[in-house]
Structures are given as C-alpha cells and as structure tokens.
C-alpha cells in the first residue's frame, strides 16, 4: 500500500482526492493538511470529505502531515515550493496540481527533481486534457501559420486565477510546436480599437460562471473552415484519478521532475517517435 497525504484536504479537490484514495485498493490515507485559517483543522479528513472517519486528523503543519507518508498530493492555492521542499526532505514523492505557479516556482521545483526529489507537476491531471495537449501540438504543426489560433476556457464562478493553468499549458504547447513565444504572442482578451489580429497571435479568453468544472476549446480558423478541439470536464474525479495515477507512477520511476505527459507516456508522436 502507498501511504498518501493530501494538502488542501478540505478544498473541492482535496475532498475528491480523499474519497478516491479511500476507494482505491493500493493507496491509504496517511495525512491531511490545511491552511492555518481553515475551520476544518482538527477534524477527521474522511468526515470532511463525506466518506466516513479514517482516523486521520487535518493538521496545519506539513511536517506533521508527511510523517509516515510515501507520497504527498498538493491541490492547495499557494506555497507549492515550500510544500515540495518539506516533502522531498522527508523522502516523499510529491504530486502538485496547484495552478498559477510562477516561472521561478517551476524552476525551483525542477531543481528539486534534479537534486533527487520525485515530483509530478501538472496544471491539469485529466487523461483527456493531456490527450488534448498532444492533439493541439500535432494540429498546430500540421495546420501551419495560415490558421488563426484562439483558446477559450470556462470555469466556475469561484475560480481565483485566470487564465486557467490548463489554458496556459495549451498556449505553451502550441508556442513550442510552432516557434511562437508565450510572452509576446499570447493576447489576453481584446477590448477597444485593437485592430485586426496578427497571424502570429494566440487569443486567450477566460469565461467564468456557475459550477463549470473546466471547459477548454482551441480554435484553428482559416478562410473557409475551422477546426475546434474541445475538452469538457464534468467531475473533479477526473483530476483526482489522474493525480492518483501520478502517485503510482512516481513509485516506479527514478527521481526527477515529471509532468502528466510523462505519466501517460504521451511525449511521442502518433507514429511512435519521441517528441
Ligand atoms: P479550493 O479553494 O476549494 O481548495 C483549496 C484548499 O487549499 C482550501 O481548503 C484551502 O484552505 C487550502 N489551502 C490553501 N493554502 C494552503 C496551505 N498553504 N496549506 C494547506 N492547505 C492550504 O480549490 P480547489 O478547487 O480544490 O483547487 C485547488 C487548486 O488545484 C487550485 O490551484 C486549482 O486551480 C487547482 N486545480 C488543479 C487541477 C489539476 O488537474 N492540476 C484540477 C482542479 C483544480
């Protein structure tokens, strides 16, 4: 059995992670961590997640949370680097789903992988979205520069960051496949007399409302036709199940800094060549 601690245990994702860990045959909940201001501190994590008492109390200090854990899953809203440093120094693998990481934070997480930590960091852990990344990479390369590319994402009305981490990864993937730059070629929304779009720009649009778990569409439009690739998540379980796959993956691989494309073996073209 792989012992798993959850950071952000009382959050929307934290509760689904706990439920999926409890339902699995090969994982066991060993720790649950929440923010200092959380009203759920001291409560049983299983009760908070609605799956019955698990004998695991929600604590504030990750150093307490990682005791006995083999792996940590972090879906909170900050301090990903601090969490990773504690997990790695305790000898735990860590799966980070927290989004809106800065370039500096990502670089430090990659360093931790090079220093002997085992990490999976991914803005979206769903299998379908990771296939979407793969398909967009192929579509952008095949369709070429005559197709205008726009990304539209929609999420629930409580989401704090915009654009979504997934939309950013989609744009980064397309930039990498087509020689564009995220910093100079991605245009966030449009307002006023902005003029005609340039052929190189990638339009990025964040829609918020209701209880939408996560929709992403990438549009490739040219004269006479357009191709739209869409993924719609209808349950947070898709992300939780992906995170558990990442935990199992880290139990089998050498130390390093990985993403979900590694976990799902999608870093290859459809004819089997490495990409
Ligand atoms: P949420 O606000 O419902 O839950 C976040 C929880 O983290 C809260 O309970 C909060 O108290 C807790 N928290 C905040 N800081 C903490 C800290 N320092 N230590 C411990 N706990 C802390 O949010 P959510 O919808 O569950 O999403 C959480 C994160 O996961 C967000 O960044 C979101 O964008 C991301 N997310 C990622 C994926 C993915 O597949 N990678 C999927 C869904 C959501």
Q: Could you provide a short overview of the structure?
A:
By secondary structure, this protein is α/β, with parallel strands linked by helices. The protein folds into two domains: 148 residues, 3-Layer(aba) Sandwich (Rossmann fold), CATH 3.40.50; 107 residues, Dihydrodipicolinate Reductase, domain 2, CATH 3.30.360.
Give the secondary structure arrangement, pairings included.
Blueprint: E1 2-7, H1 12-23, E2 27-33, H2 45-49, E3 58-59, H3 62-65, E4 71-74, H4 80-89, E5 93-96, H5 103-114, E6 118-121, H6 127-143, E7 148-155, H7 165-178, H8 182-185, E8 186-188, E9 202-208, E10 214-222, E11 225-233, H9 237-250, E12 256-258, H10 260-263
The structure holds nicotinamide-adenine-dinucleotide.
Residues 7-8, 10-14, 33-35, 38, 75-79, 97-99, 122-125, 165, 239 line the site of nicotinamide-adenine-dinucleotide (NAD).
Specify the number of helices.
10
Small-molecule binders here are: nicotinamide-adenine-dinucleotide
Number of domains: 2
CATH superfamily of the largest domain: NAD(P)-binding Rossmann-like Domain
The computed structural class is alpha/beta
Share of helix, binned: 25-40%
The counted number of beta strands is 12
Q: At the third CATH level, what is the topology name of the largest domain?
A: Rossmann fold
Any guess at the CATH architecture of the largest domain?
3-Layer(aba) Sandwich
| Rg over C-alpha atoms, rounded to the nearest angstrom | 19 Å
The largest pleated sheet is described as: 7 strands, parallel
- Main sheet: which strands, in order across? 3-2-1-4-5-6-12
Report the β-strand fraction as a percent range: 15-25%
N- to C-terminal separation?
34 Å
Give the CATH class of the largest domain: Alpha Beta
Poorly predicted regions are none
Run of helices and strands? EHEHEHEHEHEHEHHEEEEHEH
């Amino acid at each position: 059995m792989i012992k798993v601690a959850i950071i952000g245990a009382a959050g929307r994702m934290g509760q689904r992670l706990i439920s999926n860990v409890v339902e699995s045959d090969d994982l066991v909940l060993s720790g649950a961590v929440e923010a200092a201001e959380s009203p759920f501190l001291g409560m049983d994590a299983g009760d908070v997640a609605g799956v019955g008492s698990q004998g695991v109390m929600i604590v504030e200090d990750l150093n307490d949370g990682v005791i006995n854990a083999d792996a940590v899953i972090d879906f909170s809203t900050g301090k990903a680097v601090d969490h990773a440093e504690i997990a790695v120094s305790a000898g735990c693998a860590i799966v980070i789903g927290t989004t809106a990481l800065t370039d500096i934070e990502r670089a430090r997480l990659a360093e931790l992988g090079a220093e002997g930590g085992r990490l999976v960091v991914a803005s979206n852990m769903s299998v379908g979205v990771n296939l979407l990344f793969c398909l967009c990479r192929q579509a952008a390369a095949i369709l070429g520069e005559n197709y205008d590319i726009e990304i539209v994402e929609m999420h629930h009305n409580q989401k704090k960051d915009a654009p979504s981490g997934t939309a950013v990864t989609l744009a980064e993937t397309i930039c990498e496949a087509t020689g564009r730059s995220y910093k100079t070629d991605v245009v966030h929304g449009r307002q006023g007399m902005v003029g005609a779009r340039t052929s190189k720009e990638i339009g990025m649009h964040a829609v918020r409302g209701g209880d939408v778990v996560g929709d992403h569409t990438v549009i490739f439009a040219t004269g006479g036709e357009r191709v739209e690739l869409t993924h719609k998540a209808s349950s947070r379980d898709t992300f939780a199940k992906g995170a558990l796959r990442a935990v199992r993956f880290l139990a089998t691989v050498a130390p390093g800094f990985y993403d979900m494309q590694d976990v799902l073996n999608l870093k290859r073209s459809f004819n089997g060549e490495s990409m």
